[in-house]
Design a protein that fits this description.
This protein is α+β, with helices and mostly antiparallel strands. The chain has three helices and six strands. A hairpin with a 2-residue loop joins strand 5 (116-119) and strand 6. The two termini are 31 Å apart. Mean pLDDT is 74; it is low at 97-105.
Length: 130
């Protein structure tokens, strides 16, 4: 989860601010898929109160930004897939998951039997296999 770029703000980012210097325009839109240099991620509080520098235009691609719901949708989908397959979901990294990773290495469980290499809960498939 990305955080607001404003100093001392720890809220979750919901919008991305980009400056188009050639046109003296600040563009504020929904949170970009990837964090990129020269863009600023903002929380709902700071995004809704943003003003452009003097002489610049502010282009808002959305008028209202909402805080994300608790939990991560992508993690929820991954957990649902694991449950369907009967695989126990490992703890998140940094939250006591070291035992799981060390046990998987000790068991020699580095492949998934589908032609891919398994790293924790992720799998890399070779091109050309289904």
């Amino acid at each position: 989860m990305r955080r607001c770029s404003r100093t001392a703000c720890g809220r979750s980012a919901v919008a991305t601010l980009t400056y188009v210097y050639a046109e003296q325009t600040a563009v504020l839109g929904h949170l970009a898929t990837f964090a990129e240099p020269h863009t600023y991620d903002l929380c709902a509080f700071h995004a809704e109160r943003l003003t452009a520098p003097q002489g610049w235009e502010l282009l808002r691609l959305s008028m209202h930004f909402e805080e994300p719901a608790d939990g991560d949708d992508l993690l929820a989908v991954a957990d649902a897939v694991r449950e369907e397959r009967g695989v126990v979901s490992p703890p998140l990294p940094g939250l006591g998951g070291l035992e799981h990773d060390e046990q998987a290495r000790a068991d020699g469980n580095g492949t998934d039997g589908l032609g891919g290499h398994r790293v924790s809960h992720l799998r890399v498939l070779r091109e050309g296999r289904s």
